[in-house]
């Protein structure tokens, strides 16, 4: 009997005007949204390729080790087309400097790079699911019982040998079954567009994630179907049921998440990052003071009162390059770098404590808002989807943490291999090539200009490059599905629990339903 | 007769549960918004005052030497809008500052607090309360206004008396509009009262005029909503069908159409990317450095002597570099503005988008506020440059080379002191009510036009409809 009711309801819904309208809306909106999302993804891939090339050139075109301030770049995931989460607002490139641990990623670039346009909310596939499909769910379920009661068919049906539980299961199954082809069509449309794009290639892991997304979207829709069914079992007329359903839908999708974000922002307040920068500036001041003292000490040790150089590029303790400079000056510089470099790294760690405290507040604020807004099923869908599509905060934080660990590993390599104490850290000359006197240095530079014919003052390409093959490189290890889902497991469980409760109360309510 | 029908409609709706419930929701939202916007305002205002003081302190310190004053970088911050509660327009996500000196203006940057780790939520401001809650309330009041009465037979009964159809239509329209205006007015009054008691935001006369302008626009917008849904109700036979069509129309006008036009406009008007503009700037700069008209070298022994030909050529090079940079980035910013303006104008096809942008313009937030701020900052840079040039010309000891290269040209410009009070400051001029009205007159006209069209269609359909 259940199957007959399921089949009848499925056919009824499938041919109803509201389903057809909803279906057509999806048929138009889904390809449109995915197409624009694909275009944005393509531009992000292009940008990634440029960044990756630049990151490699840092290693291949370095003339001294000090010039190597590596970059960590993350490849955009094609799954961001499904759910962009925070991926477009956090950047994909991290500059790893010796004097500062990175707080944020840079390189926030979308296709058209018009910040005025890009800052406004734009829909992605998951947003379409969250808004449009949930509304279709409400539309199909608001009169599941009340319409049968109004038409008198419920009375007729239950006067036969049909159990109420069978009827309930048949009705619920019918609507759920209606949604499966609708969802499938949406996903197939997405796949067609993705397959056409030459930039998008999905891995087995991606397909597994999409499958989970599909199952989760079905669960999300079930929530609205059962909510609609419950209200239908309580309301006297279909119109009343629809009005109540719509108010709840509007509350859950628009008002609740926004109210909760307000509340979250008030529970954990954040300051401007400029305050952190100011405090970091104090530490920089302290560093310069100490460096001054160190300079005097090194000057005493080397007996060099006035130091000079013939060709210098870069800045004091960053990517500096010295050439055609006398040996006494070079000894002084080497000693300075030997003592300053660990101090630079120490101060970067001190500054990091301030940055970390600020970041922790940002994370806490995000988490509070996430917990509070998870009262809305649409937000639950967005969080779980962002996690599956690698566009949530946790994925980005994981990338940032890997970049920071790599920075530490990189500069530790310099320490362990005494690169900071070598001449090659700041000069392309070998020790034996360094001129002894200023006259020698001037002649050497003049000869170089004559033979190498540099295009500009700082065109030093003829001086050769340092070997970087042994230096550690950044490789990003993506989080697995389970790692990502572990963070969202509790909200997933809450939604399942909410659906179960709704099924139970709808069933109880229907059993007691007055069919007259 | 209209009066009686009108009173009947008002009574019928005022005592209904949905109006009482919706009014309670609306008032709560207005109160929440009043509390939150005061806190946000205080936070951003503190930052603004802090930056203003820092700028003034830097200027005061440098006033003893003209050449120091020339190279001061000021951080101009857009002050928070007093009436941001009307429309937040993602103000906390948008840039709010520029770095400006006499020679260059940076691109817009973000200074205020922002957490990039969560997607932006829609603010519960006046515009959004009206766009979402009032629209839903309009739907719930209008969807069965005619088709419901037709189904119940009361319409037949009413029209069998000597009542003209147009009178019924007008009475229903005015009745629903009045019922909706009550929570709107009460909500706004309570909001303003909370703001006054809080004392963190001081509203002046201009603000009240702007609020009045917004209120009038809001009533007109609600009227468009009511007329649209009344029209649907007259054209349909069953309340459920009417409700479904109302909802689909709302979804199309509020979400789908703006979204499509917003993203389409990006494809219709192509602009160069940031990296393309950067490389163009770099190329232009390289060609200027290599140009035989200029001199890129430096011999380090210029200071204190009269400028020779090389110095003058280098000064010309620096000026040309500044002019080229300002031209390239200025053009790029104007292109961004044009693309955004196009997108906004396209989205205004939907009255919902139009109303959203109208709220943002009145509250001087969002793109309009940012554009005003950027334009004013650009003008300020020109004023500052002109002021410095004139001051330098007045000094007979100066070689009059006010050039953007602090390490080499300080010696070739005036070194006299300046009075702190003389120095022009950047003061952001907020949008006046008159200017707001001038900017928005066409938008208001479009809303009135929508109302008239929907009123006419609704009335015609109702007059011609079969009430049986």
Supply database-style keywords.
heterodimer, A: 516 residues, mainly alpha, two-stranded antiparallel sheet, elongated, B: 468 residues, 2 strands
Using only C-alpha atoms, the radius of gyration of chain B works out to 29 Å
Shape by Cα distribution of chain A = elongated
How many strands in all of chain A? Answer: 4
Provide the structure class of chain A: mainly alpha
Q: What fraction of residues of chain B sit in β-strands?
A: under 5%
Domain count of chain A = 1
- What separation lies between the terminal Cα atoms of chain A? 23 Å
Q: Could you please describe the fold and organization of this structure?
A:
The complex is a heterodimer of chains A (516) and B (468). By secondary structure, chain A is mainly α. Chain A has one domain. Chain A is built from 15 helices and 4 strands. Chain A has a two-stranded antiparallel sheet. A two-stranded antiparallel ribbon of chain A has the order 3-4. In chain A, helix 2 crosses helix 7. The two termini of chain A are 23 Å apart. In chain A, 41% of the residues are buried. Chain B is an all-alpha fold. Chain B has one domain. Chain B has 15 helices and 2 strands. Chain B has a two-stranded antiparallel ribbon with strand order 1-2. In chain B, helix 2 packs across helix 7 and helix 8 packs parallel to helix 15. Chain B is elongated, with a radius of gyration of 29 Å.
State the gist of this model.
By secondary structure, chain A is mainly alpha-helical. Chain A has 15 helices and 4 strands. The longest helix of chain A has 47 residues, at 327-373.
